[in-house]
Amino acid sequence: MQRRNLLLTLVGSSCAALLLAPAAQGQPGPGWLANLSTVAHDVSGTVLVVDEDTLQVNHFTYDGGGISVYLYLGAADTTADFTAGLEIGPQLLGSEFDGTQPPLVIDLPAGQTIDGWNAISVWCDAVGVSFGSGAFHPPVGEIPGDFNTDGVVDAADYTVWRDNESGGYDAADYLVWRESYGTISTDRDSPRSTTAPEPGAVLMLAVAVVLPTVGRRPSRR
After folding, report:
1. How confident is the model over 65-111, as pLDDT tens digits?
2. Domain map of the chain by residue range?
3. Distance CA 85, CA 130 (A)
4. I want to staple 52 with a disulfide (CB 3.0 to 4.6 A). Which of 48, 59, 113, 194 is the partner?
5. Helix pair angle (155-163, 171-180), 10° resolution
6. What is the model's pLDDT at position 191?
7. Which residues of 144-162 are buried (b: 16+ CB within 10 A; e: fewer)?
8. pTM attached to this predicted model
9. Nearest to 149 by CA among 103, 106, 193, 113
10. What's the longest Cα–Cα distance across the chain?
11. Which residues of the chain have pLDDT under 50?
12. Is 138 within 8 Å of 191 (Cβ atoms)?
């Protein structure tokens, strides 16, 4: 009986530890992307991780308003994390972007890398408000018509085709975009590289460990 109770206690403790452990999340690396949401001041764009200490903001839009505005990195896409985050790049206040300018290349401060920074925001640091933000995610599978490579075929891709800055799009590409409109990559909502065990799996493991011992009598010598 004492042996059975000890095993039940050990398994219960193990289950609790597994259930309470946070899911492991992949760290941003080259090729990862963050899609900036539009919260205020017409912010939008896609942020690309070029290498461990360089970011590139593509198709960036921002009307130049606010008080004191910088790009900030955060451990997560939350107000608290950006408040405690890392200021990067130049002061953005007063600079207007309409998505047609060359990509904005940002070198991280000396000694800093993207490791541990899982989100980015156009951040008004004077009042602690985000004008638009997004979490980094791995590159998504290529979708026909997804000209801005954000994992969704939508109006933003039409804008890329219409502006044709690269000179590489034609009428055939428009037809591809039209046929694919609304398509979403199956990888887009899977930013985690590994996950914690599901509660059901942990429970089955506990049962498998405990059942063979319940009711078993000690062997006689």
Report:
1. 999 999 999 999 999 999 999 999 999 999 999 999 999 999 999 99
2. 33-139, 140-186
3. 12
4. 113
5. 180
6. 40
7. ebbbbbbbbbbebbbebbe
8. 0.58
9. 103
10. 86
11. 6-25, 189-211, 213-214
12. yes
